[in-house]
Amino acid sequence: MTLADPIRFLIGLALLVWGAERLVRGASSFARRLGVPPLVIGLTVVAFGTSSPELAVSIGSSLSDRPEIALGNVVGSNIFNVLLILGASALITPLAVSARLVRFDVPVMIGVSALVLLLALNGTIGRVDGVLLLATGALYFFLLYRGARANHQAGPTPGVPPKAASEPTTTASSSGAPVRRGPAAGGLFRDILAVVLGLAFLFLGTHWLLKGAIAIATALGVSPLIIGLTIVAAGTSLPELVTSIAAAARKEQDIAVGNVVGSNVFNLLFVLGAAATLSGGLAVERETLQLDLPVMLAVAVACLPVFFTGSRIGRWEGLLFLAYYVAYMTFVALESLAPAVAPAFKAVMLGLVVPLTAVTLGVIAWRQWHATRRERGSGEPV
Q: To which H or E segment does residue 159 belong?
């Protein structure tokens, strides 16, 4: 390790924070100017942008001698996104959840996760499967676009003056003739520039932080396995992590939650679809089929009752997500470092902790649903 490594790490961290702040600020302003809900921007522009590292890694590995890395990258990132990113964001501030997410986007995430698991049951995700995923992704993107367009035609975003959102202003010249100005165009350009710069600094910051962190960990004697399970595995999800935390800190809750859900859908449909299509097929290892893919699906399913209860993700639910991420990573580490202990840990988690959590979330969701029906029946506002 040289002096440049900790310096590179600190600069990378600073670039990540600054890039995330620019991205969130530009994306939220862009949404308000065009009358597009911030949730849609989070599901598309922000989610697709922050998922670019996963896309680059998966396509690169699919064209190399180890295309199966692409599947592990996508599955690991999706688990990381929900459990760690949403958990950390909810600890900063409870996250309000849009009804649209509960009714459409989260069920899409669950359905796509189940589809990938079904496609993997034969031990491979082939080229035809990849084309199917890409086609499904195109359909999802079209539905998002149509919904955003319908919202824009319905009227401007509340709190945004119509002229600031879409119309140029008109002033008088010295001769009395009207002169049309276009502050909206200039504002849109600044917003787009902020988004582009934010993404660029996110990618550069991710590269520098990872390079410095790996060098520091190696010099401190941390094993390559632990580096892979922590720094490298989470590396491609750093943009999503920092962006969602920055959005939560700025009270842009739709962007924080939409970024995670949109990134997971993008990873499964576009990243995995492109990797399978380009490589001709991705091999699915037995451990991935028996553990990681079911965990990814379970995490997606868990979002539905969590999001539904009170239409928010509370701090205790964020803490629950973080605890499950620690448990998952602990099992992965035990499976490699202490194979004799791993089965007992797995039995306790699957036989006791997970069922208790599922029952608790189910009861809370049922009580919330029952209370909502009662309020609607009495005519009270929901």
A: none
State residue 368's pLDDT score: 67
Task: Determine whether 290 is exposed, middle or buried from the number of CB atoms within 10 Å of its CB (0-12, 13-18, 19+).
Answer: exposed
**Span 179-225, pLDDT tens digits:** 444 445 677 788 888 878 877 887 787 677 667 776 777 777 765 54
> Do strands 124-126 and 281-283 pair parallel, antiparallel, or not at all (unpaired)?
antiparallel
The token pair at 371 is 């209370």
Given the structure tokens 């004697």, which residue do they identify? 221
DSSP three-state, residue 95: strand
Residue type, 132: L
Measure CA of the first residue to CA of the last residue in the chain; give whole Å: 58
3-state SS of the chain: helix, strand, coil percent to 5? 80, 5, 15
* Higher local confidence (pLDDT), 40 or 381: 40
HSE-up of 79 (CA within 13 Å, CB side)? Answer: 26
Q: pTM of the full predicted structure?
A: 0.71
Instruction: Give the residue among 348, 230, 350, 340 at the shortest CA–CA distance from 290.
Output: 350
Q: Compute the distance between CA of residue 116 and CA of residue 268 in angstroms, rounded to an integer.
A: 7
The first and second tokens of residue 125, run together, are: 């995700």
Question: 125 forms bridges with which residues in the sheet?
Answer: 282
Tell me the C-alpha distance between 297 and 374, whole Å: 32
Q: Domain extents for the chain?
A: 4-161+186-376
**Residue 76 contacts residue 233 (beta carbons within 8 Å):** yes
**Which pLDDT score is estimated for 131?**
94
Identify the residue whose tokens are 């590292």: 53
Work out the average pLDDT over 228-235. 58
Topology of domain 4-161+186-376 in CATH is A middle domain of Talin 1 (1.20.1420)
The residues, any chain, with a CB within 8 Å of residue 272's CB and separated by 6 or more, are 58, 70, 71, 74, 116, 125, 130, 133, 282
Rounded to an integer, what distance in angstroms lies between the CA atom of residue 311 and that of residue 253? 12
